[in-house]
Amino acid sequence: MANLFQKIGLIPRYTEVSLFLTALTFVLVYLSNNEAASIVTGFAVLSTRMFLLFIFYVLGLIFSFYYAVSDKETPSIAKLCMLIFIMLTNLGVALFAFISISREVHDYYIIFPALNVINALIILTLFRAKIVDENCISDENARPVELLIGSAAVLILFLISQYVLKNYWAITFSICLSYSSIINDAVTRTLFREKKV
E strands along 77-152, which residues? Predict the structure, then answer.
């Protein structure tokens, strides 16, 4: 069954670059927005179970940075933490972006949270069905130039959305997340057509 889902493209494949860019976006939003920071830290104190999930989430964030710049093989437990990080980030951003859009309608912005909602629901459903697991995290090492180009693009998108357009933090995160998980892959394939080893 997993092979069928993979063939039709429903099983996500996260690269070190996409995880790194998602983690970078998280840090930028967390440091620049008090509401986003208080929401994230607020979840940690809801219950013991939420606190444990928060620990895995933070570890996933740290591992997303570390293994992108390290040549070491990523162990399964680190991949699981990274998967928890990306799943919860997708879900949280999608929910808060839709809450924002329901308050103030910005028709052309709806595509980014919509992509994130679809992505989050597919991942969570397949995760619960044990089809999506830590094997969705690629072992392929990120190239420094990929990290540099992706980071520059995310930083530019973040600055324009947050400070020029003055978007709600979840909209900014959603735009950057869409770039990290979808557009960056196409840009990378265009720039680096040769196969990676």
Answer: none
Residue 3 burial (C-beta neighbours within 10 Å; 0-12, 13-18, 19+): exposed
- Which tokens in the block code for residue 134? 């830590």
CA pair distance 9, 158, nearest whole angstrom = 28
Q: What is the pTM of this model?
A: 0.86
Of 123, 101, 122, give the one whose Cα is nearest residue 175.
101
| 3-state SS track over 63-87 | HHHHHHHCCCCCCHHHHHHHHHHHH
Written as six digits, the tokens of 84 are: 């928890």
Contact between residue 190 and residue 23 where contact means Cβ atoms under 8 Å apart: no
Q: Which position has the token pair 């930028």?
A: 28
Mean pLDDT by 10 residues, the chain (197 residues): 63 88 96 93 85 94 96 94 92 82 65 70 84 88 90 95 92 86 75 56
- pLDDT, position 196: 47
Domain extents for the chain?
14-188
Whole-angstrom CA distances from 1 to 24, 42, 53, 134, 165 are 34, 38, 28, 17, 44
Number of Cβ within a 10 Å radius of residue 114: 16
Maximum CA extent, the chain: 48
* Residue with the two structure tokens 């390290």: 70
How does DSSP classify residue 168? -
Q: Hey, is 58 helix, strand or coil?
A: helix
